[in-house]
Each structure stands twice: as structure tokens, then as C-alpha cells.
Amino acid sequence: MGATALRNGPSPVPAPIDSIVEVRGISKTYGNVEALRGIDLDFPRGKLTSLLGPSGCGKTTLLKIIAGLIRADGGTVAINGKRVSAPGPERAFVFQDFALMPWATVTRNVAFGLELRGTNKAEREETARRYIAEVGLAGFEDKYPHELSGGMRQRVGLARALSVDADVLLLDEPFSAVDEQNRRKFQEDLIRLRTNQNKTFIFVTHSIEEAVYISDRIVLLSPRPGRVSQIIEPEIDRSGDPERIHRDRHYLDTVDEIWQGLKQYVE
Amino acid sequence: MAVSIRTDGEAASLAPLSNRSATGASWDQPILLRLVSIALFAGVWEVAGRIPVSFAFPTFSDTIIAFFGLLADGSLATAYLSTLQPLVLGVVLSAFLGVGLGTICGLWRTGEWLVIPVFIVLQAAPVAAFIPMVTFVYGIGMTAKTLAVMILALPVIVLNTYKAVRNVNGSLLVMCRSFMGTRWQTVSKIILPDASPVIFAGLRLGVAAGFVGVVLAELLITPTGIGDLITFHRSRADYAEMYATIASIIALSTLTLVFLQWVEVRVFRPESRGA
Ligand SMILES: Nc1ncnc2c1ncn2[C@@H]1O[C@H](COP(=O)(O)OP(=O)(O)OP(=O)(O)O)[C@@H](O)[C@H]1O
Ligand SMILES: [Mg+2]
């Protein structure tokens, strides 16, 4: 008891940021393709961190390693200080291709994570309905995925991830199969969700604008083998009108700065 | 009268089988088309019977009358009682065994290597040739007939199930794993529902093959049931009765397949019921 009190007491070193996900020395090689090399990263709790980088630099690989869906060749991933190597209840994944069961209604799809955990039907459908409304799909509970647009399907994927009440949401280019209008709407929703839900988001994207618009922190990865090349924290006030943010000086400068950094890889 | 015309016609026109939209929204038109198709079929049969194309080819109306005769004297009922037992037993056994075996082979490499080649050979071989061999080993009883049904029905069910399970949607598997689905949950909640359309296609083919099997067995080995009724009427040159018997088994087979499709859409793939 005394030891605990001591540890919690005032410490001489500056308080470290509270990281929920800690990635240490992760590397991954597929056959003779070295996808990731020595990735060290901390993801602060309650923030939205974007992984940004050129195609093929290993963003999806890194996200899936954090999710426990791919085994790393070396290094460790810790969630809340505990090492993990398989999927767990504290993480939920939103898939680029939605991964919805075509034979199940929106409600059953959203409740699927809870169904697998053995939550009883009434309770999980109640939870599902709440999150369906949260992502703006109220009224579509009994529809099947093929009756929804791409944007709506991705909202189902997001609601499914929210409904298991994980601390960390992992999103792999969730908007890449969604049209521009829906994408904008979705980005705003995500900003709102991050404020309301107090969850940690790790977000993979191709788009610099998107990353700057929604992220608290942006991790730039270099091309193969993926390494952390830069970390940027755009401090943008998102409380106002979304249109205003897109014209904000600081927003535009940050986008430009990142573009300058990435340009070398494209040329 | 109207009822039996419909039965005969359905037997001939396979429309309800291939036409998925029959379960869809526009009901009136397919029904009209089907009635026309049935009437057309009956008409052609009637004309062909009257020409006649062969002295052994009865007209449609004679066949219908013969059908009611067979119903009235009870010979059809007796025949079906004897045919349906091995048929139902064989088909049900093949369905469970086939789907089970196919699933195991789809999930488990060793099982695949051990079992699948056997069924590929069985499917390629003219298996009807094995039926006399079955009689040789198992005599002419119920066992032989059931085995005949299974020899024909099993390979296509196993192979379709195996193929469907092997080609299951990979991203759904990853999704299930990411939400910590167990092995059993993955099989029951993802793999089988995802595979069910192809599995059911296999079941339909298997059931149809089962009908072939039981009739072959009764024609070739054990002169009982429907096979015997056909042989008996042929030997007496009662061609109308013979055709009525044949048509009745075709109709039964078709209705069974339609029912199977109904079950599939109802229970396993509600989303394909149509918007
Ligand atoms: N299963 C696999 N087998 C072999 N190579 C793979 C596999 N998955 C990814 N790779 C390779 O690893 C590298 C990183 O892939 P990854 O999908 O993580 O990139 P990414 O940054 O997500 O790319 P994108 O932006 O195009 O989605 C790529 O060069 C890819 O070809
Ligand atoms: Mg990717």
C-alpha cells in the first residue's frame, strides 16, 4: 500500500504523457519485402492519431499488428501497459472494405461484437440501436448491407466498433471507398465522436488534408521499409464551423509543411 | 383436374428453380408466364401424343386420366411408400454427412488430402455402374437402395460444401477474429452462412441425384416401388400409366427442390428474399 502511495506521489521528472498504446521496436518482413523497421511510437489516450505515408509504407501492417491481427517479427505492442499479441476487448477495428455480413441486418452487424461475447440478445440490440443512432443511421436498423450506400456501410462498421466499448479504435482508411461529400460529413462526425466518446483513435489515411483536419497528432511514415519520419501535432481549434477550419491559416500551413516533407518521397 | 395439370407442368418447366425473382416483388408476371409455359407444354404433349410420335407415347389427357386411376387403386401410394423410405433416408444422410465432411475438408488440410480426391473420382465416374455392385454386396433390400441414393447424392454435396468453405470471404474471417470470435463461432456464424448459397446449390444437385439413384436402383436391382410400377406398366404396354408414374416422380423431385430453395432463402439468406 505504501509503495503505491509513493509511486503516485509527486515525482521530480516531468509527468510523461499518458500513452494507452505503446509500440516498441516493431519490425515486419513479408518474404523478402521489409515492410516495417524498428517502429517506436506512443499513442496518447483520448486523442486521435493519424498514420500518414506513401502507399505501401506499411500503415495497414502497423495497424493490424497493433490490432493483433498480424504477428510482428520483432518488437512489442502494449495496451494500458500490458503486452498484447492477439485481438483483445480493449481494441476494435474498422475495416477499409467494411467487412459486413451480407446476410445480417444493420442491427445484427452492429451487435456482432457483443454477440460473439455472449451478451444476451435484448441487451446487445439495445446497445446496437444506440450506436446506430449515434452514427446517424436511425431508421435503417432492419436494412441489409446491400441496401445501403458505401458511406452508410462504413457507418455500420464504425457503430460495430463503438458498440463493443473498446478504449482504442483502429481505423484503416475508413473513407477510401466513400464519396467526397460523405467523407466530409464523416470526418466531422469523427471529430464529434472523439470529443463525446473519450476514446483513443488510431487512423490510417492517405490524405494529408484529412489527417490535418481530424488529428491531434500525425505520424509520418517513410517509404519501405516503413519508419517513423516525423511527428506533427497540428493545434487546430475545431470548435467552430468546419468550413472555417478548411480556410484556417494554421491548417493550411500544416498541410503545406507535411506536403513539403512527403514530396521528397514522391519525386 | 386443374391441380394435376399444374403438377405435371411444373415437373416439365423448371422455371421455379432457376428463376430467383420468383420470390421477388413482381409476382403477377412470373405466374402468368409460368401458366403459359405449363399450358404450352401440355399442348405440345397432347399434339405429340395424337400424331402420334410413337405408339408408346400417350397423349397428355390419357396420362392425366391414368394418373387418377393409379391414385384411385392405391398402387401409386403403395409404390411411393416403398420408394420414399430409402430416398428420404439416403438424402437426409447424404445432406448431413456431405455438408459435415465437406466442411471438415474445407477447414482441415489433412482431411482435404484424404477425402476430396475420392469424391472427385466418384463424381467423374459413371457411378450408376456401381449400383449392381452394391446389390451384389448388400442384397436387394433397403440398405442397397439407400446406398444407391447416397452414392449418387454424396459427391456433389461434399464437393460443393468443400469448395464453398475454402472460398469463404477472408475479410469476414479477419473481422470475426478481430472481435475475438472463437473457432466454433467463426465456423457457425461466418463460414457456414457465407458458404450457404453454394452449399445449397450442392444440396439441390444432390437431392436430384438421389432421385436418380433410387429410381435406378428400383429399375436395375430391386423391382419395388416406383421403379417396379414403371417396369410393370411397360411390360403390360400401359403406356399412359407408365408415363403418369414417371411424371409423378419428376414432379415430386421438382417440388422437393423448390421447397429446398424456399428453406434456403427463408432461413439462411434472408437478404436475398428481395427488397
Ligand atoms: N500479406 C502480404 N504478403 C506479402 N506482402 C505484403 C502483405 N501485406 C503487405 N505486403 C507488403 O508490405 C508492404 C506494406 O503493406 P501495407 O498494406 O501495410 O501498406 P500500406 O501503407 O497500408 O499501403 P496502402 O496505403 O497502399 O494501403 C507493401 O509493400 C505490401 O506489398
Ligand atoms: Mg493500407
TrEMBL record, chain A:
GO MF assignments: ATP binding; ATP hydrolysis activity
ABC transporter domain: from which residue to which, for each copy? Answer: 21-248
Listed SMART domains: AAA
Please verify whether the record's keywords include Nuclease: no
Q: Which PROSITE patterns does the UniProt record give?
A: ABC_TRANSPORTER_1, ABC_TRANSPORTER_2
The reply to whether Nucleotide-binding figures as a keyword in the UniProt entry is yes
Q: Which UniProt keywords apply?
A: ATP-binding, Nucleotide-binding, Transport
In which family does this protein belong, per the annotation? Belongs to the ABC transporter superfamily.
Q: What name does UniProt use for this protein?
A: ABC transporter
Report the source organism: Mesorhizobium mediterraneum
From TrEMBL, chain B:
Q: Which GO terms describe its cellular component?
A: plasma membrane
Kindly give the InterPro entries that the UniProt entry links to this protein.
MetI-like, MetI-like_sf
Q: Which organism is it from?
A: Mesorhizobium mediterraneum
Name-wise, this protein is ABC transporter permease
| ABC transmembrane type-1 domain boundaries | 80-261
Query: Which family does the record claim for this protein?
Result: Belongs to the binding-protein-dependent transport system permease family.
In which compartments does the protein localize?
Cell membrane
Can you tell which superkingdom this protein's organism belongs to? Bacteria
Topology relative to the membrane, per the entry?
Multi-pass membrane protein
Q: Name one GO biological process term.
A: transmembrane transport
Transmembrane region(s) = 60-81, 87-108, 115-140, 146-165, 198-222, 242-263
- The UniProt entry lists the main location of this chain as membrane
This protein's UniProt keywords: Cell membrane, Membrane, Transmembrane, Transmembrane helix, Transport
